[in-house]
Amino acid sequence: MHRRAIPEYAMNEAGSEHLRQRGVLVMRFMDSVHNDPRRLKPHFHEFFQMYLLQGNARLMLDFKEYSLHGMNAAFVSPGQVHTVKPGRELQGVTLSFTQAFFDDDAPPPSRLLELPFFFPDDSPPWLKLTSAAATGLTPLFDDLCAEYDAAKPDAEEMLRATLRLLLLRLGRLASQQQATPQKASRSMTLLRQFQLELEKHFRERTDLATYARALGVTANHLNDVVHEQTGHAAGDLIRRRRLLDAKRLLSHSDLSVSEIGYSLGFDDPSYFARFFRRYEKMTPTKFRDQIREKYQTTNQ
To answer: In angstroms, what CA-CA distances link 132 with 70, 72, 87, 137, 239?
Structure first.
C-alpha cells in the first residue's frame, strides 16, 4: 500500500527504548505534541492508543469531528486516521500500546477485544468522565507516567498490570453509561476478533469464507453473529472497510482514483467508481474535492 500523504507513525521516540520495543509508550499529551508536532495533522498507526484529556480539544477520527470539553478518555484503534487539536491549556496523557503487549502470554481470544471502545460500530470513541470517575482514574494514568519514566527492571509488568486495571475500570464505566449494560458475550468477542482480522487483511481478503476459516467458524455462523451484533451483514462490513480506506486515500493521498482502486483490489477502475458511488452517492473525484476543501485547508 503506497500512502504518500497519510503518514504512518511509529511510537513517539521518548523514554525507554526497551519499553517501546516491547510495545508500550506513556507521555504527557502536550509533551508528545512538542516532541513531534507532525502528530497534530492527520496520521495513522498500527497500535492502540488512548488519551486522557482535560480541557477543550477537537478530535478528528475517520472523517468525523468531535468537540471534547472537561475530562474525557478517548480511544484510537489501529489504522484509524486521526488527530487531536488541543485547545488552550489542554492537559492529559497519551498511552500507546500493541495488542501483543497487552496480551503478553495470555491465550486467545484477547480480553482487549471484549472492551467496547476499540473498533466501535456506531458508539462515540470517547467516554465523558465525571468528577467522581476522574478521581478514581487519574491516579492510574499518573502511575503509568511515573512507571514509564522510571523504567525500572520490572516496569513492563507494572505497566501491563496498571493498563489492564485502567481498561477494565473504563470498560465498567462504559457499561454503566449504556442504556442497557451488557457483559461481553461469545458473540461480541467473535465480532471483535473479526473486526481485528478485517483491519489487518481487508486489502487482500475480500470474501467472508477466508475470515471464517481464520477464526475457526463457518461463514454462515460468522455472518449470523455479525448481523446480530451490528445489524449489518459481514460482507457489508468488509465492503465498508474497503470503502473507508478509499475515503482515507482520496482525502489524504495524491494517488489517482485508478491507483486507489487497484490498491484496494479492484481490477477495473470503473467498477471501483460504481462501488464508491453506491455507498457515497457521488463519484470518488467529487468526494476528494469536497473533503479536501473541508480538511486540507484547515490543516495547513
So the answer is: 13, 13, 24, 9, 42
Task: Flag whether pLDDT at 3 surpasses 50.
Answer: no
* Cis peptide bond N-terminal to 109, omega within 30: yes
Identify any residues that bridge with 61 across adjacent strands, giving them in sequence order: 64, 82
Residues in the chain: 300
Contact 85, 57 (CB under 8 A): yes
- Rounded Cα distance between 158 and 34, Å, is 27
Mean pLDDT, rounded, for 200-219 = 91
Cβ pair 90, 112 in contact under 8 A: no
Spatial separation of the C-alpha atoms in residues 279 and 110, rounded to whole Å: 32
pLDDT of amino acid 87: 92
Kindly report the number of other CB atoms within 10 A of residue 118's CB atom.
Answer: 23
Contacts of 231 (CB under 8 A, 6+ apart): none
Could you tell me the pTM of the whole model? 0.72
pLDDT at 296: 52
Q: What is the CATH number of domain 186-299?
A: 1.10.10.60
- Taking only the tens place, the pLDDT of each residue in 135-160 is 999 999 999 999 999 999 999 999 99
- What grid cell was written down for 256? 489517482
Question: For the chain, what percent of residues have pLDDT higher than 70?
Answer: 91
The CATH number, out of the four listed (1.10.287.3610, 2.60.120.280, 3.30.1330.10, 2.30.110.10), of the domain defined by the range 17-177: 2.60.120.280
- Summarize the chain as % helix, strand, coil (round to 5): 55, 15, 30
CB 153 within 8 A of CB 19: no
